[in-house]
Design goal:
Helix content: 25-40%
CATH topology of the largest domain: Rossmann fold
Number of strands: 9
Bound molecules: nicotinamide-adenine-dinucleotide, zinc ion
Strand order of the largest sheet: 3-2-1-7-8-9
Radius of gyration: 18 Å
Number of domains: 2
Structural class: alpha/beta
Length: 243
């Protein structure tokens, strides 16, 4: 393992355009449950019953109850050493951009600046009629919440299954993956598309993929270096060796 970390450090140091892609695993050590894997949210809830536009149309109150529970967890969570290490990599000029599938705000709070949020923001809601956006500093007390402008339903401002990604964020992510000579992939199962395709774009033009995950993922077969372990332990180690 330490040999692999040294290799990863060398690749990162000599990268000319390093981009990172993160998933729920990077926030696991902050106490935010992942969707899949051990202790994943999906073990307790069926995604197709909650994270889809169909589910919301059928029963907005039930979907909002689940989101209120998740919003509370995010508001009470703090960035962990993995978030800080990624922010540090950007600060020292090595990391050019961070693409995240996470809907929490821990990368922002840790200080990451060039951040592309592919799946929206769980601390926001938007009106289903007029698209007005509300930001939560605490979870909504009235469920389901209503738009302050037009009284229509508010929905979580996140991307659900069967929904397209925000166009600008997706385009930016695709451009970054095309430019990246190295991609650091952290804590993602790699099965949610199109995010999971980004490391394959890097491989297509002979870039290098470094993966950090506690277990193998859909990305592992194409990873040039696979670092098995927790992001909160491995990323700070890498940054320490680089500095
Ligand atoms: P996922 O739940 O499908 O997979 C999590 C991955 O993280 C797994 O491969 C797991 O092995 C790995 N992992 C768990 N703990 C880890 C750790 N400490 N260090 C390194 N790796 C660890 O997550 P995903 O791939 O991001 O799935 C996509 C969907 O999940 C996204 O749409 C995202 O919006 C949503 N999601 C986000 C959050 C969040 O914002 N924090 C939480 C749950 C789900
Ligand atoms: Zn409205």
């Amino acid at each position: 393992m330490s040999l692999d970390i040294s290799r990863a450090v060398e690749v990162i140091r000599s990268a000319s355009f390093l981009v990172a892609l993160t998933g729920a695993g990077v926030s696991a050590e902050s106490g935010i449950p992942t969707f899949r894997g051990k202790d994943g949210l999906w073990n307790k809830y069926r995604p197709e019953e909650l994270a889809t536009p169909q589910a919301f149309n059928r029963d907005p109150k039930r979907v909002w109850e689940w989101y209120v529970w998740r919003i509370k967890i995010v508001l009470n969570a703090k960035p962990n050493p993995a978030h800080y290490a990624l922010a540090e990599l950007e600060k020292i000029g090595l990391l050019k951009a961070l693409i995240t599938q996470n809907v929490d705000d821990l990368h922002e709070r840790a200080g990451s600046k060039k951040l592309i949020k592919l799946h929206g923001n769980i601390l926001e809601a938007r009106c289903v009629s007029c698209n007005y956006v509300v930001k939560w500093s605490q979870p909504p007390s009235e469920i389901p919440p209503k738009c302050p402008l037009c009284s229509s339903l508010l929905r979580p401002n996140v991307v659900w299954f069967n929904e397209p990604l925000p166009e600008k964020a997706l385009q930016e992510a695709l451009d970054l993956a095309s430019k990246a000579d190295t991609m650091l992939v952290v804590g993602t199962s790699g099965i949610v598309m199109p995010a999971g395709a980004l490391p394959f774009i890097v491989k297509d033009h002979e870039g290098t993929v470094i993966e950090i995950n506690v277990s193998e993922s859909a990305i592992t077969p194409i990873a040039d270096i696979f670092l098995r372990g927790s992001a909160g332990k491995i990323l700070p180690e890498i940054v320490k060796m680089i500095k």
